[in-house]
Amino acid sequence: MTMLHRRLGQTGLQVSALSFGAWVTFGNQIGDDTARELLHTAYDAGVNFFDNAEGYAEGQAEIVMGRILKAAAWPRGSFIVSSKVFFGDSYRGANGRGLSRKHVVEACHAALRRLQVEHLDLYFCHRPDPDTPVGETCRAMHDLITQGKVLYWGTSEWSAEEIAAARRFCAAHNLHAPVMEQPQYNLFHRQRVEQEYAPLYDTEPGLGTTIWSPLASGLLTGKYNSGVPADSRLNVKGLEWLRERVSTEKAKLAVLPALAELARELGTTLPRLAIAWCLANPRVSTVILGASRPAQLTENLGALELLPKLTPEVRSRLESLAAT
Ligand code: NDP
Q1: What's this model's pTM, rounded to 2 decimal places?
Q2: How far is the CA of 214 from the centre of ligand 1 (A)?
Q3: Domains, the chain, ordered by start
Q4: Spacing, Cα 298 to ligand 1 middle (Å)
């Protein structure tokens, strides 16, 4: 199936509708050979956006991705790579995290070194920083763009009001404004993308969305229905909080058999159906896939073929089942 491309909000950037991210896996859960196989599988399937962050495996995820990108030597125009700033890498000093001018600039330089690229296509503020005036962050991002180190900047998990405040500051001071957001979006987590951000999509400068955890960290595959498999991310050291969260999702676990039944009726699998549901929302610029093995990624990339079957009737059946 040919990859679909969508504009990143109102920018001119064409992003593949399915993209691929490094959280949990690169530099942590999986070895470098598997990481390479995953990145190549994604690229060969037409994925053009690879998502990363300074905080993923304390910078190791970017180092691993950078080595693979360098060895692959793909034309720079053929892929989009991101980093995110806020959580810090392995350095733990007072200015090693947050959205101050100092950290935003230094984290960008560190990401460029680790990823071995000359510019970041997308650079996200990974969370809002209550300890830094928003204007300081806006000016730092604007400067990185004018220096050619970053092409587009955006936010991740900022409230609509926080994004609007940054836009107002940028408009008032003639700065490059944030043009994309990276929110969680899946059948169990819909409010922010569908309602809270609604006023932002069509107002200047638009809002692209690169959505994360389309499978709710694997919950929407049905793999946790009867306990946690030993080789899943919920057993990765440092992710005890995620395991705790998933184990309290009893109500969500209960609806999974009905969702899987609907997938069978449509002749597909639950992961594909859950991902295709995300894709069916035109406000989603790209769905960032996660995978710890190539077979998962290949399965998930098949969601594209299912998209034509996501009629309004199928979507509403799916949504009512997920909400019960
Ligand atoms: P998902 O919700 O899709 O979870 C992916 C995980 O689910 C895989 O690593 C794998 O885990 C399991 N899985 C995937 N496909 C299958 C399958 N077909 N069958 C069985 N299990 C499957 O996405 P992520 O949570 O990984 O998020 C995707 C990306 O989004 C991240 O890599 C990152 O780039 C970004 N992100 C951004 C955040 C932000 O704050 N901005 C936060 C979180 C993610 P397992 O190893 O357990 O099998």
Answers
A1: 0.98
A2: 7
A3: 5-221+281-302 (3.20.20.100)
A4: 14
